[in-house]
Amino acid sequence: MLRFVIRRLGALAATLLISSFLIFAAMYAAPGTPESFLVQGRTVSPEVLASIRAQYGLDDPFLLRYWNWLSGVLTGDLGESLTTRQDVASLLLSRIPTTLWLTLYAAVIIVVFGVLAGAIAGLRGGAFDTAVLLGSSVGFAIPTFFAAVLLMSMFSVTLGWFPVFGAGAGFADRMAHLTLPAVALALPAAAVVARITRTAVVEERGAEHVSVALARGVPWRVVARRHIVRNAMLPVTTIVGVNIAALVAGAAVVEHAFTLDGIGAMLINSVQQKDFAVVQAIALVLVAVFGVVNLVIDVLYAVIDPRVQFGGESA
C-alpha cells in the first residue's frame, strides 16, 4: 500500500512536470503577445517595446523562459501579474477561499443528493426510482450557465430567498450567498452520480450473493448495507471523485455568472487579458487538483473493499 502511494506520488510529480511544460508552451503559442496588451493598443517606439520585452524576459529563448518560470514555481514564486503588477501567489491565496467554499458546498450536494438519491432509488424502486431517473435526465441536460440564470431568476429575483452577487462574510452569510452558485455547479454532476449510483445498486441487488444472503435469513437492512451498497460504491467512488475534481474547472462559469471573486473568474479575466503568469498558475493548480483527487480515489478503494490490490500488492 505504501509503495503504491509512493509510486502514484511520483507519477503525479511527472504529470505536473509535463503539464507545466504544455501549459507554458500553449500560452505562448496562443494568438497575441503580452507586450501588445501592456501597451493597450498605443503606438510606442521600438525602444519602449524592447524595454518592455527585456523587463519581462520575453527576448530570452523559450526553454530558458520555461526553466526560469519552473524554478520559481518550485520555490513558491509564481511570477508577477502583467495587469496588476502583484505577486501571483498572493492573488491566488486571496481568491482560493471563495472557490474552495464553493466547490466543497457543491461536493456535499453531489454526495448527499447524488449518491443518496441513487442508492435509495436502486434499493426501493417504484415511484421514487422513476422520479430519480426523470430528475437526473433533466439535471444532466441543463447547462451550468443556464441553471445559474434560472436559479437567480426564480429564487433571488422572484422569490427573494437568496442573494445573487458576492461571496458573503461570515459562515451563515457565506452559505446564503453560495447556495445558488453551488446548486448550479453541482446540478449536472449530481444527476450523473445519481444515475450511475442507481444503476450500480440495481446490478448488485440482482447478484447471486445477495439472493444467497437473503435465503439464509440475513436481514434486508444488513444485506442492503453490507452486500449491495458497499459493493456498488466502487464504481460510484470513481465517478464522484472525477466530478468533484471537475468542479474547480467548472466553477469558472458559475463564478462569472454570480460575480464571485474566485480563481475561476480570475482565470477567465486573465485569459482575456493575456496575463500569462496568472493563467499558467491557475492551470497548474487545476492539474494538481485532478491528480490529488485521483490518488485519493485509488486509496479509498482499499477502504471500501480490502480485497482490492495495487500492482500485485495487497491493500
TrEMBL record:
Location in the cell: Cell membrane
ABC transmembrane type-1 domain span: 96-297
Gene3D superfamilies membership: MetI-like
Coiled coil in keyword set: no
Keyword field: Cell membrane, Membrane, Transmembrane, Transmembrane helix, Transport
Membrane topology category: Multi-pass membrane protein
Record keyword Transmembrane helix present: yes
Membrane spanning stretches: 100-123, 130-155, 175-196, 234-258, 278-304
Family according to the record: Belongs to the binding-protein-dependent transport system permease family.
Name of the protein: ABC transporter permease
Origin species: Microtetraspora glauca
Lineage per the UniProt record: Bacteria, Bacillati, Actinomycetota, Actinomycetes, Streptosporangiales
